[in-house]
Design goal:
heterodimer, A: 366 residues, alpha+beta, DNA Polymerase III, Chain A, domain 2, nine-stranded antiparallel sheet, eight-stranded antiparallel sheet, 26 strands, elongated, B: 474 residues, alpha/beta, five-stranded parallel sheet, 21 helices
């Protein structure tokens, strides 16, 4: 094999594909490697950890065909240390690969590539839709953090994606809070739903391009195909809880506050939260204020009052502050609304002009 | 893996080992088949490869058309199995049996795989069913005893009806209910069934089952610990108190007094009390008159000896509960082989069930006879002639010669065996045996019996002969 690639192209591709290689040791050496393929179709980089997989297309010149597998960590370290701009020449001879960049040259031992698995495409990808990569990326990165990190319930550590009409809904919950985000699809894709492990979704998001991609899925596998190549992931095979059931339909009080106020008050009150990370929020309808209160026996206590537009009756609720501050990364609107349905019932937080987001937090016991 | 310490990557699989594994394997069992396939695969691929691809897979099922379905975690695995391991797997499966036609791969849920791993290899129901020994801690009732498993016959209809009546209006209709009958008649089953039914019918009310012996021990303990008051309170809180085997309270005066007071409290507050005993209240010796009167004050019902039809029903029900259908003649044989206790009857059925499970089929009458040899005592009303006939037939000699005065060796031994059996199993007197067997002196008979008795201890062949004859006699 003999290829030459632009340095920038090469470095980006290595960083993207290295994410998908197996990080655990003790498995198949081929799994922790990146496979570089040069053929008539051009240059490709492949990596997989059997959960997710990537097949990237690279722009470059193929001088002679061939396949080679290189440990991903080595390749990643080399890629991040390359300083010389210009083209890189990769040449495979025997069981080594020589990499020439500018005046420097490294020879890397290769790994047997026979064991490198094929990257599976959904068996009959009837369900497909076109979606801008940038939208999907922001969708995944924003709500994936709301999914459960424990693997005990695989459905809760996954994102629930469903297409109804021409709206794509993504949901993540860890049973204490829930985030639901809707994005409109420009063209009506096939209807359907699937569960993708949140961990995989985050990795995929990092490798998604800005341009339109085709998302297709079947029962066990989903794929994101674009000009850059293909990314696949295993899907979670479980049923997602009927989350719509827990969203309170009625409300007794609603507060509209400025995001800036909310953020600052929360930040200061958080300092005084106790070991349960508890802070109390009071809706005061008479004074039209929303107050934050926290007490830590070791530190002291603090209360913050911010102006708010309150409609409804007075109410006190306690929350884990981390779940409250998480909403700030989900929406960018200037003001946010908090809707409470009563003591012991979850509150709904929304961005005032942002109809796409619904964020639900369960209160802590008083 | 079961093959720890076995050389990995060995290029030539050890044939003898393979044979042994193959021969001990139950090829219809997916788990065992998979274990076998794994041991074979492990020999032919690298351990990293093995760990990566085979750790999380298993056989989901073996189809009737000879297709093995292998469950894998994801599409990656499925593709790779098809590409790399399919022919190898198929070859190994074919080596086991030509019945296996093809292998297919299924992507299965994670939970599914885990459950599969935990389920243990159970062949039939050979394992001791532990749940039978389960006893509820809060009321010490054994949930196994229910009315569903209670066989009603003419011998216990009255008791059963009384129990139902007591359940319909607890504390009012028959209070106390006193059930008595010989050991092994189903008293405990009946009173525990009442307790279990009561729990079901009246959730929220409290039931407690105990034996009189436990009551006595509890009382002495509480006296010793100085917590007699707590003892009193403990038993007064129940809505239904069931006490088994009250006859054991005889001579325990203080415990009786305590029971007397407890009885009064419960009875006055219309709490149902149920007693069981092996004899009628008036017949229990050494028990205070005032307690005796109270025990008999409600309803005293007795469970008599089960008739043959009921016994047959019991045998059938018991066997059916273990999933074994017995032929009518076997049921009749078991039911009539012995009189009295239902407990012994259950023992016999259990023994048949055990034999059936080991052999895998319902036993026929001959096998049942064989397996019940230890239980049966030959019937007493068998005729001497009958015994002589059977023994003579067994030894292949003319039965007439037994009665003759001959001392031929081949006749002497059977004759002695006959005498021994008549004496041991049928308790016929020595002179009678002598007269019946051709007018012999009773000392001759005594000598013969003693001789066989001694020889049986050292001569296993003789012992076996006698056992075989005994099984012929019943």
């Amino acid at each position: 094999m003999n290829i030459s690639i632009e340095k920038k192209e090469f470095v980006e591709a290595v960083h993207k594909s290295a994410r998908f290689a197996e990080k655990k040791t003790g498995t198949l050496p081929a799994l922790s490697s990146i496979l570089i393929i040069a053929s008539g179709d051009g240059i490709k980089m492949r990596a997989t950890n059997l959960e997710t997989g990537i097949d990237l297309k690279l722009n470059g010149k193929v001088i002679s065909d061939g396949v080679v597998a290189i440990p991903a960590t080595i390749l990643q370290q080399i890629a991040s240390s390359l300083t010389h701009e210009g083209t890189i020449v990769l040449e495979h001879t025997g069981d080594t690969l020589s990499l020439k960049s500018g005046m420097g040259k490294s020879t890397i031992k290769t790994v047997a590539y026979d064991d490198f698995p094929s990257i599976p495409f959904p068996e009959n990808p009837k369900n497909r839709m076109v979606i801008p990569g940038v939208l999907l990326r922001s969708l995944f990165t924003s709500i994936a953090s709301c999914a459960s990190s424990s693997t005990i319930r695989p459905e809760l550590s996954s994102l629930y994606l469903s297409v109804e009409g021409n709206i794509l809904t993504a949901v993540a919950t860890d049973s204490f809070r829930l985030a639901e985000k809707k994005i409109p699809l420009s063209n009506k894709g096939t209807q359907g739903k699937f569960l993708i492990p949140a961990k995989n979704a985050l990795e995929i998001a990092q490798a998604l391009p800005d341009e339109d991609i085709i998302m297709s899925f079947d029962e066990h596998q989903c794929a994101f195909v674009g000009d850059m190549g293909m990314i696949v992931s295993r899907l979670t095979n479980a049923t997602y809880p009927d989350y719509r059931q827990i969203i309170p339909k009625e409300s007794i009080v609603e507060a509209i506050v400025l995001r800036k106020d909310f953020e600052q008050a929360l930040k200061r009150t958080t300092i005084f939260s106790d070991s349960f990370q508890k802070i109390r929020i009071s809706f005061d309808s008479k004074k039209n204020t929303l107050s934050f209160f926290a007490r830590n026996p070791d530190i002291g206590e603090s209360s913050e009052i911010i102006p708010a537009h309150i409609s409804g009756s007075a109410l006190d609720l306690s929350f884990n502050y981390r779940y409250l501050s998480a909403v700030l990364s989900l929406t960018t609107t200037e003001s946010i609304s908090l809707t409470a349905a009563g003591i012991g019932r979850p509150i709904i937080i929304k961005g005032i002009t942002d109809t796409s987001l619904l964020y639900l937090v369960s209160p802590m016991n008083q | 893996m079961i093959l720890t310490g076995f050389p990995r990557n060995a290029n030539v699989p050890c044939l003898w080992y393979q044979r042994i594994l193959q021969s001990i394997m139950d090829k219809g069992n997916p788990r065992e088949l998979w274990e076998y396939i794994l041991t074979q695969i492990e020999l032919s691929i690298s351990s990293a490869n093995f760990n990566t691809w085979f750790r999380n897979s298993f056989i989901v099922k073996i189809g009737e058309d000879g297709v093995i379905y292998i469950g894998v975690p994801s599409q990656f695995f499925k593709d790779w199995y098809l590409k790399k391991f399919h022919s190898l797997l198929l070859k190994i499966a074919r080596d086991v049996s030509y019945e296996f036609r093809n292998i297919e791969y299924l992507i299965v849920k994670d939970e599914h795989r885990k459950i599969q791993k935990e389920t243990k290899n159970v062949r039939g129901v050979m394992e001791l069913p532990l749940d039978e020994f389960y006893i509820n801690k809060s009321d010490s009732l054994n949930p196994r005893y229910t009315f569903d498993t209670f066989v009603i016959g003419s011998f216990n209809t009255l008791a059963h009806t009384a129990a139902q009546a007591a359940l319909a209006r607890p504390g009012i209709t028959y209070n106390p209910l006193f059930v008595y009958g010989d050991t092994g008649r189903g008293k405990t089953h009946l009173i525990q069934a009442i307790g279990n039914q009561f729990k079901k019918q009246y959730p929220g009310r409290k039931v407690f089952y105990l034996t009189s012996e436990k009551f006595a021990v509890d009382y002495t303990d509480s006296v010793q610990a100085g917590t007699a008051n707590r003892f009193k309170d403990k038993y007064r809180q129940y809505d239904l108190l069931i006490m088994d085997d009250v006859q054991f309270l005889s001579k325990k005066d203080k415990t009786q007094e305590e029971l007397f007071h407890l009885f009064n409290t419960l009875h006055d507050t219309n709490k149902q009390i149920i007693f069981s005993s092996d004899r009628a209240p008036s017949a229990i010796p050494d028990i205070a008159e005032r307690l005796k009167g109270r025990l008999a004050s409600g309803m005293a019902v007795d469970i008599s000896e089960p008739d043959t039809e009921s016994r047959m029903a019991i045998v059938q029900k018991k066997a059916a509960s273990h999933g074994i259908m017995l032929s009518p003649e076997v049921i009749e044989y078991v039911a009539t082989a012995m009189s009295g206790s239902i407990r012994e009857l259950e023992g016999m059925v259990n023994s048949i069930i055990c034999h059936a499970q080991v052999k895998g089929s319902a036993p026929d009458i001959a096998e049942v006879r064989q397996s019940l040899r230890s239980f049966t005592r030959p019937q007493k009303n068998i005729s001497v002639k009958n015994v002589v006939d059977k023994v003579a037939e067994y030894y292949g000699i003319d039965e007439e010669s037994i009665y003759e005065k001959t001392r031929r060796r081949e006749v002497v031994r059977p004759r002695q065996v006959i005498m021994y059996l008549l004496r041991e199993d049928f308790s016929i007197s020595y002179p009678t045996i002598g007269t019946k067997l051709g007018g012999r002196d009773h000392t001759t008979v005594i000598h013969s019996c003693e001789k066989i008795k001694r020889e049986v201890l050292v001569d296993n062949d003789l012992l076996k002969e006698i056992q075989n004859i005994r099984s012929l006699l019943v």
